[in-house]
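Anyone up for a design puzzle?
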């Protein structure tokens, strides 16, 4: 139990530093401050599923207890409770968090250079709730271009051959094309 407690304190300290070394406070408040400082376009951008899960965790977290937050974040990222970790998962977890923060921060910096024509914004209403997402004009591979041309009858055939982000980009481009014809 002492080892688990020390590991949680170590992880909490390291993760706090990744977000902002100068701010003092709970892990939850530091993560919320970082998340709230992001522009709406970044918060609603479609990243990889891992980064999206990470951002969703920060957005939905309501606990301010560092032990609870680090435990839930660890389980969210590694799919294992800290109590079930081996020594290698500590570094895997920390590297993953660092990577997710870097991806989001680099998108934020790139976003300043992107003009509005390079972004597709999607707003969906479902069950009384509005979901808003945007995706920058993602270049798709040749196979994804073929999928876009034959999307109605062949999308399932491509399965894992195109990434989730490419599939979303293809669907959004087709939707945009259809909306322009209205």
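Challenge accepted. My sequence:
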């Amino acid at each position: 139990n002492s080892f688990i407690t020390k590991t949680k304190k170590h992880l909490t300290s390291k993760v706090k530093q990744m977000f902002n070394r100068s701010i003092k406070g709970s892990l939850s408040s530091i993560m919320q401050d970082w998340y709230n400082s992001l522009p709406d376009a970044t918060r609603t951008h479609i990243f990889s599923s891992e980064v999206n899960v990470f951002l969703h965790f920060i957005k939905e977290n309501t606990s301010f207890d560092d032990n609870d937050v680090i435990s839930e974040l660890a389980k969210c990222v590694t799919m294992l409770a800290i109590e079930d970790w081996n020594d290698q998962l500590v570094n895997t977890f920390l590297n993953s968090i660092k990577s997710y923060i870097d991806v989001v921060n680099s998108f934020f910096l790139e976003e300043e250079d992107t003009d509005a024509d390079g972004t597709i914004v999607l707003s969906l209403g479902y069950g009384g709730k509005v979901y808003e997402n945007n995706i920058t004009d993602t270049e798709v591979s040749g196979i994804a271009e073929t999928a876009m041309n034959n999307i109605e009858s062949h999308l399932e055939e491509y399965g894992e051959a195109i990434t989730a982000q490419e599939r979303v980009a293809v669907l959004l481009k087709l939707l945009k094309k259809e909306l322009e014809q209205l």
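A detail worth pointing out: The CA atoms of residues 92 and 159 lie 28 Å apart.
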